[in-house]
Design brief:
The chain has 155 residues and is of the alpha+beta class. Strands 1, 2, 3, 4, 5, 6, 7 and 8 form an eight-stranded antiparallel sheet that branches. Helix 1 packs across helix 4.
């Protein structure tokens, strides 16, 4: 990954606080909106309710996709908006998980107003470990990246 790609990736992920989460819900594709934060290794952290369809879907089938797009910009066609799709494996991250403190801190660092939701019994953290990435920096600028590229771009 070159420096320009790394900058585009950092820019997209820092500019947006929400992503489209794709899961398989009872074998059918399902897309929902989730606020997300990032860990140092590039894993995404989401805080979700057990009542949500995407939570049940992640527990049944951990392969997920996360789409993060740059904000719309005057004069830029929607098809040319920079975006990254992260193929990941989702795993619950409960209080006994060694990553829990870091995941909670990352999430609350981005969404401080969400702290009261951590006291709700049906909400829990999930960590989405990247398996591959597809960065589209604009027309004819698509790049397949490895999880290590994401971690390096975030450093």
């Amino acid at each position: 990954m070159n420096p320009e790609q790394a900058q585009t990736l950092r820019s997209i992920l820092s500019a947006q606080q929400v992503a489209a989460l794709g899961t398989l819900h009872e074998g059918v594709p399902y897309v929902s909106m989730v606020p997300f934060a990032l860990l140092r290794d590039g894993s995404a952290v989401i805080h979700v309710s057990a009542l949500a369809a995407h939570t049940r879907a992640m527990l049944a089938e951990p392969a997920v996709s996360l789409l993060v797009m740059a904000p719309p910009s005057a004069g830029v066609l929607p098809q040319a908006l920079p975006r990254v799709t992260i193929q990941a494996l989702a795993a619950p991250c409960g209080p006994g998980d060694p990553r829990h403190a870091e995941a909670r801190a990352a999430y609350l660092g981005r969404f401080a107003d969400s702290e009261p939701m951590f006291s709700f019994g049906d909400f829990s953290l999930f960590v989405l470990a990247p398996q591959s990435l597809r960065l589209v920096a604009g027309f004819a600028q698509a790049h397949t990246l490895a999880p290590t590229d994401l971690a390096a771009a975030l450093r």
